[in-house]
What does this fold into?
Amino acid sequence: MVKQIIWSPTAEEEKKDILRFWIIHNQSPAYSIQPEDKINEALELLPYYPFIGKKTDFERATAIIADNCLVFY
It folds into this structure.
């Protein structure tokens, strides 16, 4: 059975904050599309390969690198 990714409210807000930062920093929404696409590409693999990430020092947390963002799960 393939697992489903469920974003916590905090994670959703942090993702929006990151994208807003890039829009403001670059004065254009164009660049913010790239990190979001990279994050989505990495997350599409997770339901099929849940052990693709790397263990962290945080208990029960794993991370994957998506472009220049770390995604913890």
In short: Residues 35 and 67 are 6 Å apart (CA to CA). The mean pLDDT is 84.
